[in-house]
Specification:
With about 120 residues, the protein is mainly beta. The protein has a single domain, classed as Protein of unknown function DUF192 (Jelly Rolls, Sandwich). The chain contains one helix and nine strands; from the N terminus they run E-E-H-E-E-E-E-E-E-E. The strands form two sheets. Strands 6-5-8-3-2-1-9 form a seven-stranded mixed β-sheet, with no helix packed on it. A two-stranded antiparallel ribbon has the order 4-7. The longest helix is centred in the first third of the chain and has 6 residues. The two termini are about 20 Å apart.
Length: about 120
């Protein structure tokens, strides 16, 4: 996985300071299973991905479905364990800790950008 951050295009604000982005089929398939729960300010960006399940999860997730350009297609708050969510036309899904969407002021149609962290020795 590659570490980066999520920025909102309309005002350049950094919404999430630590976001891991999947870079393999294994990472996409595994998602958050077997990992520590996300904390405030963290996320997992899964690409390509238009649907998510919480089978095997022990905590709720907030989700942001994005198209290829990073445009928000749909937001889902508090997806509890053993459920599924999807968005037609989504190319990526941003998984967040449950309750995180409340403070982000996201709107359907706005554009988010994931930026990788520069390499530091």
């Amino acid at each position: 996985m590659i570490e980066g951050a999520i920025y909102r295009q309309r005002d350049g604000a950094c919404l999430l300071a630590r976001v891991l982005r999947t870079d393999s089929a294994w990472d996409r398939m595994r998602g958050l299973l077997g990992r520590a729960p996300l904390r405030a300010g963290e996320g997992l960006l899964i690409a390509p991905c238009s649907s998510v399940h919480t089978l095997g999860m022990g905590y709720p997730l907030d989700l942001v479905f994005l198209d290829r350009e990073g445009r928000v297609r749909k937001c889902v708050s508090g997806l509890v364990p053993r459920r599924m969510a999807a968005s037609r036309g989504a190319a990526m899904t941003l998984e967040l800790a449950g309750g995180s969407l409340r403070g982000l002021d996201l709107r359907v149609g706005e554009v988010l950008e994931w930026r990788s962290r520069p390499w530091e020795p």
